[in-house]
Design brief:
Its EC number is 2.3.2.31. By secondary structure, the protein is mainly α. The chain is about 45% helix and about 10% strand.
């Protein structure tokens, strides 16, 4: 018994030479360093990954685990685990990184200034409307905004989320009726997202913006990009429909093969609308961008499975395969 108490909790082979200060679990340095490196290398999504003890799952302070890995691993962790890390895509023309939404503190603008800018832009949007129905929509968005802002000088938790849920869809409806207002409506949407100060809520708010305003201009080359699929902007046409149209007019064999693979193995996340791929595995899928868990086959939220309900898609497939034998 005493022999096993001296073993590394990961490999159970080497004698431990590392004892964590937080939970007192023990490992050999090689195993623990390898565990940290693997965890960091897998933490490239937009969520913040906390390094946990592999035994008791208690969060390990960065000041402690960083002593056992190289500075490059620590730098990589810091790069991909920022509270306000924005979603970005690379321009297909110049490979320049495009990030539609910046963190609340990125531009150094106060909340009061943002609110004033949004009010002015909504007024400008209303004046630019060409028909009465659009004016009514914009007036509705303005009323939502003003009523929320008048509830108090400080925003309670969830108030910015209310604004995003109420105003951004209305702005999208305005754009569908008058396309020349896209840039102004998109700018208002971005400013609404920038009002959010809670990191996790801000992350979801930026995906709400992307789902309604996917077109973004590359500031380096001037080309427009669809943030959902990474292709050239195709406003008014869904990503899958655009790929199908691109497939019909393509003549290059390699390009046709690539597009066909995308059509067979990618689809938009039901929550953030960003195209994700899956070429193998079960129907339970986690979006690496927004973290939404859903069924790949039907697109519904994977809530029943979390409650222990069996995967009926897999059961039906298994039943059909048995019947064909």
């Amino acid at each position: 018994m005493y022999f096993w108490l001296q073993r590394c909790s990961i490999c159970l082979d080497q004698t431990y030479n590392l004892c964590l200060e937080s939970c007192r679990d023990q490992f050999c340095k090689d195993c623990f360093s390898r565990y940290i490196e693997e965890t960091v290398n897998q933490s490239w999504g937009l969520g913040v990954t906390r390094i946990k003890c592999p035994v008791c799952q208690e969060i390990i302070n960065q000041a402690e685990w960083s002593r056992y890995v190289s500075p490059e691993i620590v730098a990589k962790y810091n790069k991909y685990n920022q509270p306000y890390r924005p979603y970005s895509r690379y321009c297909i023309t110049c490979q320049h990184s495009i990030s539609p939404c910046q963190s609340p503190n990125a531009q150094g603008i106060s909340r009061e200034s943002r609110l004033a800018n949004i009010a002015n832009d909504l007024d400008l949007l209303s004046k630019s409307a060409k028909n009465t129905s659009l004016s009514i929509l914009i007036h509705e968005a303005t009323q939502h905004f003003l009523s929320t802002c008048q509830k108090g000088s400080t925003f309670r938790v969830g108030r910015t989320q209310e604004l995003c849920h109420q105003v951004i869809p209305i702005l999208h409806q305005v754009v569908l009726n008058q396309m020349d207002l896209y840039c102004l409506a998109s700018s208002i949407s971005k400013q609404l997202v920038a009002l959010e100060i809670i990191p996790e809520a801000w992350k979801h708010a930026q995906f709400r913006h992307i789902s309604y305003f996917p077109m973004e201009i590359c500031m380096n080359c001037g080309d427009t990009l669809c943030l959902q699929c990474g292709e050239t902007a195709h406003l008014g046409l869904g990503c899958l429909d655009y790929l199908k149209a691109k497939l019909k007019r393509s003549t290059d064999a390699e390009l046709i093969s690539t597009i066909q693979w995308k059509l067979n193995n990618t689809r938009p996340c039901p929550n953030c609308s960003v195209m994700i791929n899956r070429d193998e595995g079960c129907n339970k899928v986690d979006c690496l961008q927004c973290g939404y868990r859903f069924c790949w086959k039907c697109g519904s939220a994977w809530t029943q499975a979390e409650l222990g309900v069996p995967d009926m898609h897999a059961i039906d497939a298994r039943r059909q395969s048995i019947q064909t034998l």
